Amino acid sequence: MNVQLYTAPTIEPITLAELKAHLRLDSGTLDDNLTLTQSLAFASHAIAANYTTHVGTGVDVLGKEAIVILSAGTNGATGTNDTRIEESDDNVTFTAWTGGAFTQITTDGAGATEPDNADYKIQYTGTKQYIRTASKVLLAACEFGTSILVNDATFAEDDLLTAIIQAARESAEDITRRQLLTATWDYYPDSWPGKDYIKLPFGNLQSVTSVSWKDTDGTETTLTAGTDYLVETNGEGIGRIVLPYGESWPSGSLYPSNPIKIRYVCGWTTAAGLPKNIKRACKFASEDSYFHGARHEQLKTVIDNLLASYRLWDEF
Q: What are phi and psi of 148, to 5 degrees?
């Protein structure tokens, strides 16, 4: 099987914080570990019937534990404050985090609301790199501000642990013959198949970027999706490129070296979406590496059992 990694994953199955918790590593004092960052400055914020006027600054929380704090001062008479948590991959485009809205703040906290002049908190459990707050103020100005408390424990061996996590992921990929998290691959079949489909390695096919081939002169032709081929993602199974009804693969002699190239994207899209047993296997594989194989035989059995049902058996 001739495949080449074109774009590597940008995230890992487990975070540094998750591995440290698994290994029971303590990094230092509570004061050293916690960082409090202001997202929206405390002030009297004017009426704004939208979530675009009173927007906080984004904070990097990737791989860390984070709590968002809403400090509510005095609401103007009848004023209401609706504050939500927003998340982003790039600190530019933010969307509301599901389950990340504070209960509405009112002067008396009557009904399904909370009273003003109090502090409130929500732990962020999403998977994006940046978070911030956005608030809507109705009927009267309201005093409030938001901060984000990040548990950013550092450890002298953080670089080592990061490398161990990557190695654990790659080991799990070798065992399961899968791509665990989003990556782009180039697959080079030697010839067009005798069947009406081409299987693509590694499972969890997200999309096919291109299918191209070269003739004996090295002239490259790119096929047209939907016309020359169809894409079957097939969930967690093996994805395929399929000929439409009545179509055939290109004819003519092929270039002697890597004549056909299929570029495609595969893998689970988020670490949170990975099956729990794969994440657990990565933790145990990391433990095995960190402690230099002190419990290798026991852990190997555990890892193999956790990954057994996710192995792909298709041949290429």
A: -125, 120
